[in-house]
Amino acid sequence: MKNDECTILRELIDGQGLEWPENPAERSDLKQQLDTMKDEGLVNVTYTSLGSSEDVENIAYVSVSLTPEGRLTGEDEC
């Protein structure tokens, strides 16, 4: 498990939530990480866009929650 994934899981387990960055490059990196974690079954992610597409520039709100697998993985491996 990558260190960035552990950081995200720990923040969610601790109830801190995630901050959606202002910087488009940071947004793109975070979206890619979250999408990978979603594919691995660790988190549920919903993006709310202002525009007609889910380009990172248009995403206004991100909802992230842990799956039971994500919680166990975060507690055991991080």
What features would you describe in this structure?
By secondary structure, the chain is α+β, with helices and mostly antiparallel strands. 47% of the residues lie in helices and 19% in strands. It is built from 3 helices and 2 strands; from the N terminus they run ααββα. It has helices at 3-13, 24-39, 68-77; strands at residues 43-49, 59-66. Strands 1-2 form a two-stranded antiparallel ribbon. Helix 1 packs across helix 3 (68-77). The longest helix is centred in the middle third of the chain and has 16 residues, at 24-39. The radius of gyration is 12 Å and the shape is elongated. The N and C termini lie close together (8 Å).
Short characterization:
This protein is α+β, with helices and mostly antiparallel strands and 78 residues long. It has three helices and two strands, in the order H-H-E-E-H.
Structural topology:
Elements: H1 3-13, H2 24-39, E1 43-49, E2 59-66, H3 68-77
Antiparallel strand pairs: 1-2
Describe this protein with a few key phrases.
78 residues, alpha+beta, two-stranded antiparallel ribbon, elongated
Whole-number mean pLDDT: 88
Distance between the termini: 8 Å
Q: Helices and strands: which structural class?
A: alpha+beta
What percent of residues adopt helix (DSSP H or I)?
A: 40-55%
Radius of gyration: 12 Å
